[in-house]
Each structure stands twice: as C-alpha cells, then as structure tokens.
Amino acid sequence: MCPMTQVRWLFAVLLLAFSFCGAARADVYGFVDSATGRVSILYTDRPPADSRYQLYRKDALGNSGQQQAAAPVSAFRLNTSRFNSHVLAAAHETKVDAALIHAVITVESGYNPSARSRAGAVGLMQLMPGTAQRYGVTNRLDPAQNIRGGARYLRDLKAMFGNNLQLVIAAYNAGEEAVMKYGRRIPPYRETVAYVPKVLGHYNKYLRVGMPATPRG
Q1: 108 catalytic per annotation
Q2: Mean pLDDT for the stretch of residues 117-140
Q3: Residues 53 and 111 in one domain
Q4: Span 173-214, pLDDT tens digits
Q5: Are residues 90 and 34 in the same domain?
Q6: Alpha-carbon distance 101 to 121, whole Å?
Q7: pLDDT band for position 54 (50/70/90)?
Q8: Does residue 79 sit in the same domain as residue 135?
Q9: What is the pLDDT of residue 28?
Q10: What percent of the chain has pLDDT over 70?
Q11: Are residues 200 and 167 in contact, defined by beta-carbon separation less than 8 angstroms?
Q12: 108, 176, 177, 191: which is the annotated catalytic residue?
C-alpha cells in the first residue's frame, strides 16, 4: 500500500469512528506492523482477539462510561481561536496546513503556552531546546516564536518524508532519526504509535469544521 493510500485509509477509519461519537463507547487499540510499518487502529468496546493490538487510549471518542453528545463545531473553533493569528502566520510562511499545526498543538499542549514536559519540551508545540535553536526560537514560551518554530520543523519533516503525514507526525514526536532508524516507518514506541492517530484525528476534525487545508496567499 502506498503512503498516500495508507493516509486515506487511516482517515476513513477515523471518519467512521468519529461519526459514532456520542452514540457508542469506544476504546482505541493499535499496533505497528513490523513488516510494513503501517499503523493499524481499532475502535472497540471490548479487547480485540488479535493479541498484537495494545490499548492506547480509553474511551477516545469522548465518552466515559455514559453516553455523551458530540462536541459542537463551535467548540473546536473556540479552542483554536486564541492563537489562530499566530498559526495562520506560520502556515503562510511555511505552507504547512493550519489544520495540521492546530492538531499538533492540541495534542502536544492543549493550547497551554506554559506547558512543560519531563523531557524538557516547552510551549504550545512542545519544542525541545535543540529544535528551538535550529529554528531560531529564542523564547520557547512566546506563542508566536514557538508556533513558528514548530511549523518550520513540520515543513522540513514534510520535505524529508515526502508529505507522508504518518511519518511526519511520528517524526515530530520521536525525532526524524528514529523514523529513519526503522526504515522510514513509524517507530514501534508506545507513545508514538498512540500519538500518530491522535494528531491525525484532530487534523481531520479541524478540516471538517472548515479550517483551510492549504494556506492561502
């Protein structure tokens, strides 16, 4: 299966899963095929029979035991509006989809500009010191600088991995060296295997609410 077909396949799965959001309980199971590097995702309310699947997120469709209504479209716009001007500026500069930048921010920091990880990542797009230095970010807590640096990194990853979003997102999480180490496939790290579908899910969701896929201008 070619990279673009893999992305379309994963998007189709995510679309189907989100279409039932609020109507059924679903946990996220997944595994990386060691032969092909493909991520397999399964949404189910019970553990799958295939032992290769591992539980990565419980009730990932937004439910917690009780049925809940799907979040309204306005909620997604509200969550992204605070830093939208910085995201759009970075998207125009780098030609990286604004929806992808927002998706990374959503998963990395939940729009907390002061977020810090135990590994030393800081800010909205959780830049490590080396990444910040590489892209001229002098203050990782500054939203505009942080977003610009993260977008530039995504731009370079897209060029490196031929716009294969699965690999771009995996490299953003685990580093491009890890993706190259495993033969240009998603590294079989538990965090990374869980991270890729999370970001792709938000990316697809933001596209569905009208966020532009390609920067204008």
Answers
A1: yes
A2: 95
A3: no
A4: 999 999 999 999 999 999 999 999 999 999 998 888 766 555
A5: no
A6: 17
A7: low
A8: yes
A9: 58
A10: 59
A11: no
A12: 108
Q: What is the total count of domains within the chain?
A: 2
Does residue 132 lie in a domain region?
yes
Taking the C-alpha atoms of residue 126 and residue 10, their distance in angstroms, rounded to an integer, is 25
CA dist 102 and 110 (Å) reads 10
Same domain as 130, residue 43: no
71: enclosing H helix or E strand: none
113, containing H or E segment: none
Nearest to 43, CA basis, from 65, 56, 58, 28:
28
Query: 216 lies in a domain?
Result: no
- Asked whether residue 78 carries a pLDDT value surpassing 90, the answer given is no
- 27 forms beta bridges with 44
Q: Do 199 and 97 share a structural domain?
A: yes
User: Nearest Cα to 32, choosing from 161, 173, 177, 189?
Assistant: 189
Pair (21, 89) in one structural domain: no
In a domain, 64, yes or no: no
The span from the CA of 153 to the CA of 134, in Å, is 9
Looking up tokens 């579908």 gives 197
DSSP 72: P
